[in-house]
């Protein structure tokens, strides 16, 4: 088969469409013929040499895919060769075939195009696990999403609105904020021109956000704590603004607030299986009912993964950038 390999760390140009050995499913795994994958920030960091795959994972980038089951490993039940699926991966999605633990498979939701289903697993699992399973966003509460026009952001807006929450977003352009508004965002903040703490407080009568979904890390840590409401929860899922910051514990204590920090890729199989099951139970009915949808910016050939990485690195997209096989 062919797959995108990373012969050396560097810029997008190092990504190479290579002939590689076919993967073979083991016990409890299935082989999926890939139709599409999607670009995530983690893929870019891996390409740069700063985010190695977990032990035993495929060395190729790609944390999600959609396609058709080609082969079942021993001990797999509930799936059939030919089933159209999408999958949460630890790696290997930038390829013509990938092996997936059966617990990380999801059926393609009714009404969703097979290719576009590749835009769902990583964002749905990330948002549901952090915003709902950990931070317990409730109806009537306010969620602040940093990077509202990203793949994560566009899913977070829709899911929060679907459960009856109020949504604030930050983004860097008027056009991106307008797209967030069309998805249901209530409070629109241009982080290049406005102070998100002040804007959020003004829009919530001084209360702040009950939950903040943050992809920046250190750069926003102090301001995120100041933006939290009493009993607020800060969920950190990225380090685009650095890994080390100073935390005002007094401010955290004063608000009786909590901070969580998680990644999805390195979690054990049992945790990923539980998250995928929860997403299938809670998110899939919203997709099939037309209440939420995957947001796809563009589709590019998988062999041109370098171009897709450039788009994402330059933040020239809204939603997900897909890589399509064939």
Record field, number of beta strands: 15
Low-confidence runs (pLDDT<50, min 5 residues)? none
Overall mean pLDDT: 97
Secondary-structure element string: EEEHEEEEHEHEHEHEHEHEHHEHE
Which term fits the overall shape? globular
Largest sheet: 7 strands, mixed
The amount of beta strand, in percent, is: 25-35%
Query: Helix/strand-derived class?
Result: alpha/beta
Radius of gyration: 19 Å
Intertermini distance: 12 Å
Percent range of helical residues: 25-40%
- Total helices: the number is 10
Could you outline the blueprint of secondary structure elements for this entry?
Elements (H helix, E strand, L loop, with lengths): L1 E4 L10 E4 L9 E10 L2 H7 L16 E9 L11 E5 L8 E5 L3 E3 L13 H14 L7 E5 L4 H12 L3 E6 L2 H10 L3 E4 L5 H8 L5 E6 L6 H7 E9 L12 H6 L3 E4 L7 H14 L1 H5 L7 E6 L3 H9 L6 E5 L2
Parallel strand pairs: 8-9, 8-11, 9-10, 11-12, 12-13, 14-15
Antiparallel strand pairs: 1-2, 3-4, 3-6, 3-15, 4-5, 5-7
Helix pairs in contact: 2-3, 2-8, 5-6
């Amino acid at each position: 088969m062919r797959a995108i390999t990373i012969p050396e760390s560097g810029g997008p140009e190092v990504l190479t469409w290579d002939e590689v050995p076919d993967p073979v499913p083991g016990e409890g795994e299935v082989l999926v013929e890939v139709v599409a994958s999607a670009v995530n920030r983690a893929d870019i960091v891996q390409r740069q040499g700063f985010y190695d795959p977990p032990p035993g994972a495929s060395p190729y980038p790609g944390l999600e895919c959609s396609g058709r089951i080609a082969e079942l490993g021993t001990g797999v039940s509930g799936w059939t060769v030919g089933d159209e699926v999408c999958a949460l991966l630890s790696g290997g999605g930038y390829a013509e075939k990938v092996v997936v633990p059966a617990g990380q498979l999801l059926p393609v939701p009714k009404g969703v195009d097979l290719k576009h289903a590749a835009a769902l697993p990583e964002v749905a699992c990330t948002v549901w696990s952090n915003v709902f399973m950990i931070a317990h966003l409730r109806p009537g509460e306010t969620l602040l999403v940093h990077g509202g026009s990203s793949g994560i952001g566009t899913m977070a807006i829709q899911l929060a609105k679907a459960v009856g929450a109020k949504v604030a977003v930050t983004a860097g352009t008027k056009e991106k904020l307008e797209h967030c508004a069309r998805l249901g965002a209530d409070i629109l903040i241009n982080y290049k021109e406005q102070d998100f703490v002040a804007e959020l407080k003004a829009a919530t009568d001084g209360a702040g956000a009950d939950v903040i979904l943050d992809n920046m890390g250190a750069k926003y840590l102090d301001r995120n704590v100041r933006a939290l409401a009493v009993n607020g929860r800060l969920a950190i899922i990225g380090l685009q603004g650095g890994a080390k910051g100073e935390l005002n514990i007094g401010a955290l204590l004063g608000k009786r607030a909590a901070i969580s920090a998680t990644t999805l890729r390195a979690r054990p199989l049992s945790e990923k299986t539980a998250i995928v099951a929860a997403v299938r139970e809670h998110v899939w009915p919203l997709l099939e009912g037309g209440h939420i949808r995957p947001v796809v910016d563009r589709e590019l050939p998988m062999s041109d993964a370098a171009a897709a990485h450039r788009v994402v690195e330059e933040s020239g997209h809204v939603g997900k950038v897909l890589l399509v096989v064939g």
